[in-house]
C-alpha cells in the first residue's frame, strides 16, 4: 500500500464525489519551483503579520519578477535582508517593514546599499 493519499479510498461509506477526486498535488509544479529564478525563503519574525505572513512561513520568491507598488519583496537594506512591502511615493521607491506604529519606511537607494532581491510570488504555511 502506498503512503500517499489519493482521495479514492476511504473507510465507511463511499463519497458521492469519489469519481471527481484530484490526483496527488505536486507542490514543485504548483509553485513553479523548476524555474531557475524561484527560491524558497523561510520567514523569521512577524513584521508582516498584518499581510498574513507569519514567523516560520515559507515564501516562494522570484528574482526575475519586477516589483510593483504594494507587493511584498525581499530586499537588502544597510547589510540586512528584510521582507517588506514596497511602495512608490514622491517619485521614489520605499520599503515598509514592521507593523502598526512600529512600521519603518526606508528609501530604496542602490547608491546607499539597498536593493530589491526578489518579489514574493507565493506563501507556504507548514503549521496551521
From TrEMBL:
<feature type="region of interest" description="Disordered">
    <location>
        <begin position="1"/>
        <end position="22"/>
    </location>
</feature>
<dbReference type="Pfam" id="PF00717">
    <property type="entry name" value="Peptidase_S24"/>
</dbReference>
<dbReference type="InterPro" id="IPR039418">
    <property type="entry name" value="LexA-like"/>
</dbReference>
<dbReference type="InterPro" id="IPR015927">
    <property type="entry name" value="Peptidase_S24_S26A/B/C"/>
</dbReference>
<dbReference type="InterPro" id="IPR036286">
    <property type="entry name" value="LexA/Signal_pep-like_sf"/>
</dbReference>
<protein>
    <submittedName>
        <fullName>Error-prone repair protein UmuD</fullName>
    </submittedName>
</protein>
<feature type="domain" description="Peptidase S24/S26A/S26B/S26C">
    <location>
        <begin position="9"/>
        <end position="120"/>
    </location>
</feature>
Amino acid at each position: 500500500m502506498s503512503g500517499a493519499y489519493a482521495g479514492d479510498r476511504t473507510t465507511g461509506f463511499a463519497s458521492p464525489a469519489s469519481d471527481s477526486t484530484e490526483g496527488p498535488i505536486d507542490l514543485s509544479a504548483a509553485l513553479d519551483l523548476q524555474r531557475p529564478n524561484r527560491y524558497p525563503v523561510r520567514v523569521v519574525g512577524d513584521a508582516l503579520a498584518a499581510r498574513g505572513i507569519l514567523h516560520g512561513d515559507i515564501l516562494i520568491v522570484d528574482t526575475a519578477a519586477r516589483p510593483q507598488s504594494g507587493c511584498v519583496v525581499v530586499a537588502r537594506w544597510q547589510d540586512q535582508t528584510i521582507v517588506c512591502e514596497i511602495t512608490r511615493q514622491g517619485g521614489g521607491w520605499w520599503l515598509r517593514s514592521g507593523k502598526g506604529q512600529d512600521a519603518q519606511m526606508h528609501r530604496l537607494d542602490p547608491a546607499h546599499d539597498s536593493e530589491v532581491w526578489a518579489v514574493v510570488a507565493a506563501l507556504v504555511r507548514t503549521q496551521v
